[in-house]
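During the second half of the funding period, the structural biology subgroup turned its attention to how the target accommodates small molecules. The most pressing case was nickel (II) ion, which had performed well in the primary screen but for which no bound structure existed. We therefore specified the complex as follows and requested a full 3D prediction, including the ligand pose.
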Amino acid sequence: MKRSILLHPDPRLKKLCPAVDDLSDSLRQLADDMLETMYAAPGIGLAAPQVGEMNRLIVLDCVKPDEAAPRPLIMFNPEIVASSDETNVYEEGCLSIPEHYADVTRPKEVEVAWLDRDGKAQQEVFDGLWATCVQHEIDHLDGKLFIDYLKPLRRQLITRKMQKLKRERARP
Ligand code: NI
């Protein structure tokens, strides 16, 4: 089932999400729903707080649809265990901040540990777009958005435009 995606500004997008301590069927269902929602958007990553669920859970798939088979990843309690000193700049966007994009600098490579859909511990090194995406999504679990990396003026401008968009969408 597709979920609706919260739009910035929303207090739920600014909160720290607690760790998942028991992988229930409803959490697995949430993860499947999030993948469906992400692919439909379309997007390459989605974090649980973006659909109003305050759990440390992210989903991602950075494979370009026309280049290879999809690689949907479900990560419960994802944790960055190592980061490269070398950095990378990507123009980032966010499904909660549609139509706004900005360059963000992050470590080029990160090693991430997580629990998969079956609760099995996984660990992998990501680079390129995958590294940027997984860091962006983990940030969401700590109440951090990509616009928090921008200069205050730019961030305020985007936030004001989003407030206007939300008012327009709320109109009957
Ligand atoms: Ni995002």
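Two results from this model are relevant to the next phase. The CA atoms of residues 2 and 36 lie 6 Å apart. The chain has a mean pLDDT of 97.
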